[in-house]
Amino acid sequence: MTENKKVLVAEDSSVIINLTKNVLLFEKYRITAVKNGKQVLEKLLNEDFDLILMDINMPVMDGIECTKTIRALEDKNKANIPIVAITGNYKNYTLDDFKKAGLNDYIQKPLDYDLLLATVRKHLS
Question: Measuring CA to CA, which residue among 115, 102, 8, 119 is closest to residue 53?
Answer without folding.
Answer: 8
